[in-house]
């Protein structure tokens, strides 16, 4: 298991798509605060900047790892890498878990770059005035990590089903872009679907920004649901991988 994890971490470090996405996010994290503080007409506090980032970071959580899933996972089937790993005597369950853990780690890295880097750079420009509340900052980061992991677990299943990176990315983008509008439409016609959607990670991810105004029950729900999703889709992915014919 240790060797598998080390191998996956090495591949993630060398993965061009991962490095490209990280560099793009870092560039955005540098450019946006620079432009806002140098050319903005209104005084912007670091707290305002952080809140605006958290309000839009769900796009990063749901979409950018789709690209990573296609290139880091699905491409290994088409290139024959996965066949070599599976035929080397390694247990399939361990192979999948190792891949899932490292892919989750990659998704988490992508999810925290903007809020951490942009807040840090904004703090330098603002000379650390108007900083966000530390407790709120930590809460939002923890929940961003939880939901990035939950979405990664779902992506991993579909990336395993589709052995072509292009198809995997296309399907994942379709799912993560269309799920909200479709469920919102269906929820308006059915209270059952409305309840399901309101308790799904696709809906709850939008509430991360409001964590400082939630009671204990709401925070518990915001915490336990992504954990259950991660475990459920992790187990589902293992079954899919065990049944999959690797060519």
TrEMBL record:
- Transmembrane stretches, by residue range? 21-39, 59-79, 100-128, 140-162, 169-187, 219-242
Which keywords has UniProt assigned to this entry? Membrane, Transmembrane, Transmembrane helix
Query: What's this protein's name?
Result: ABC transporter permease
Q: Which organism is it from?
A: Bacillus cereus
